[in-house]
Each structure stands twice: as structure tokens, then as C-alpha cells.
Design goal:
Elements (H helix, E strand, L loop, with lengths): L8 E5 L8 E5 L11 H12 L6 H24 L1
């Protein structure tokens, strides 16, 4: 149990209610002192809580590389 600690937090509703109910961000003590507005803090918290889009191109390249390696191994075993 922690006593005597006061923290500022931002609570953001989760983007997918099946997975997360809410996200809680604990602010640094000097975050407000640096001149960052409340709106900027809220936007950053919402940005971080959104799911990131998948890297479709990277996944496709890895899939093609795996298919190519499989084809190469199949070709080598058929020739030998």
C-alpha cells in the first residue's frame, strides 16, 4: 500500500470494448509544468490507445519470402 502519493492520470475509454474497458495513463510530475495543454495530453493519450494498423506490405513480403524459401527447398529436393 502506498500512502501520501498524489498522481495525475488520464483515463481513456478502450478502442475495443471486447479487449479493454479503459486505458489509464499516469502523467509525469513535470508534464504539466512544461507548458503542455490539457487538450494536447488528451489527444496524445487517445492516439496511444488506438490500435495501430497492420503493416500489410511487410507481412506480404515475409509471406513471399517464406513461399520462395519453401519453393527453393522443394526444388533442391526434387533435383537431388
Amino acid at each position: 500500500m502506498v500512502k501520501g502519493v498524489c498522481r495525475q492520470v488520464i483515463v481513456v475509454k478502450g478502442p475495443d470494448p471486447r479487449l479493454f474497458e479503459q486505458a489509464i495513463f499516469i502523467l509525469k510530475e513535470d508534464a504539466v509544468k512544461e507548458g503542455i495543454t490539457d487538450e494536447a495530453l488528451l489527444k496524445e493519450a487517445e492516439r496511444l490507445s488506438r490500435p495501430r494498423p497492420r503493416k500489410v506490405v511487410r507481412q506480404a513480403l515475409w509471406g513471399l519470402a517464406g513461399a520462395g524459401a519453401t519453393g527453393l527447398v522443394w526444388l533442391l529436393t526434387a533435383v537431388l
